[in-house]
């Protein structure tokens, strides 16, 4: 007893260990035996056999060679010094980046030609969705008129709780789940609230999977909103679900195991609507898994994150990942606030229950003026509202801390009849429609101030403030569209500012897609409503649009690499809206910039025939890492390539053959600033074609291109060109920067191959 008290159990955390592929001693028949033996030999626990049991959480063989295990601090150092070990990475926890979009993108089934027709709707392609699992019974995942899975498919349907293996079909051809990392950090899962199987208990994974590859379903709607036909981007593409996200998040060791399985199974596209803190690529499990997936020919798209509208918020920034931000489509769900003074204020909502009376005004209060703790009550946090004050009233709540739908639940529990949810200054004017549990609407920051002032003035005049909410249903052909969603994460790229991120944007606001039976549309536990479809917003919804489009492009052009597919999507993207003007930023109402939308908004039909592509091999990415001053060991962690790859003279970082060109100048007293970019384009258009360059230089920048004419004689031919950029330093305060953007376009008279040119001037501190 005394000995136990003096030697408490050591605190262990999960680590991911990368080993050299050929380092396994021959005495061990399998890598797993070697890993377990190594752990036993370095264990610091009192009973080493007991301590080792269950501590090898995952063994990786495809995108990564190594294992995940729970280790103490002392054991980490011992493992690091073990023969054959390249790196030991700490586990990170990631989080989710939470029908009309195919039509908005120009993908219509009636077209006799076009991307859907040319690709046979993606029927021989497999999209792997790494997310919260899937609800397989949804009509979006039916397999009518689909043939057997592609011959190359090696995956399987892993049975589990309420998920027998026969739930897979010719549409959902694979399903797996990974929870060892999650349970190592959180203890055994609560199986009354989560399924130990690929079945989705959250809704996010079902939603994203059906955006990427849902079948045509009619009629489709959420609580009567957005009625019509629902379909994914690649309606005949096959799906494989890899469940890695649980109640407490998505753990790196599980995500890496999903990448490992997906590549071994034979997916063509990986869709990942998950992200976390940006770290160097050699510490980033998503970047490491995605590199090996790309090396195997798998296109990886990932959500940019929902940290907008602030700068430097973009995540999943590795250049071998296609990083997707979010835009609006031409549909919204207006819900108008009518105040007692006659003023009407625009808002948005998805509310399908009994409405408030149009001809009656209800007492209106601001929650922040009523609670004992003004801060908690202003945000309508749980338990912060006094039922004696709230009962029978519409309550104005501020956005923040708890979820938007939960605020409505708090108001409803306190006896309120309705809620107005006001954006804060940081949220700006960007609005997200939610499936509320009571009559509610969301309004912008300016409107929130107007309503607060009305309440204050009404109190002073001794005539109580009153209001009602009028729900207008679904409105189509909203202009302008697209608009960059306020929440969409923005550049510059925090890890490599010379690589413009996000790469592009796709529909991500108020997107209708499939939803499980066991989760109410608001996503809160008390919501017992059931709906086959739900409307969600986030870069999580934008990412699978691009995943599905990538599958269609791969089906139409099987020879294209992941980099070629991304290039086609980026160089044909557009930055104008339905008015023909630069897309607006939803948060401010002003024009957006390349830091908001990257190359622009996806244009699927043009992407099918881009003319030229900027291709990148795995060795191109290795050169990029060499130019990033990574050590040989760090590069090996990411790429599995030997250290010798960096022996030749290093190019500058901007010479990665990326479809955008970004120069970052530090103004260390220099007056004249210049750099150059070397690019190689591959002809995927007409055999005999001539492209001439059009330059739109950023303000105050001189851009030259040599040669100005590229003459191709055959398909697949590659030609190089040189871009020189010159500018002059400008007066900036210490620590500040200025960004200027333009473009270069190669045109053959039929196609325009556009690349953004971005110049950033930074004044050091």
UniProtKB/TrEMBL annotation:
It is found in: Secreted. InterPro entries: PA_dom_sf, PA_domain, Peptidase_S8/S53_dom, Peptidase_S8/S53_dom_sf, Peptidase_S8_Ser-AS, Peptidase_S8_subtilisin-rel, Peptidases_S8_3, S8pro/Inhibitor_I9. One of its GO terms (cellular component) is extracellular region. One of its GO terms (molecular function) is serine-type endopeptidase activity. Keywords: Glycoprotein, Hydrolase, Protease, Secreted, Serine protease, Signal, Zymogen. The active site is at 131 (charge relay system), 204 (charge relay system), 540 (charge relay system). The keyword Cell membrane does not apply. Belongs to the peptidase S8 family. This is Subtilisin-like protease SBT1.5. It comes from Salvia splendens (Scarlet sage).
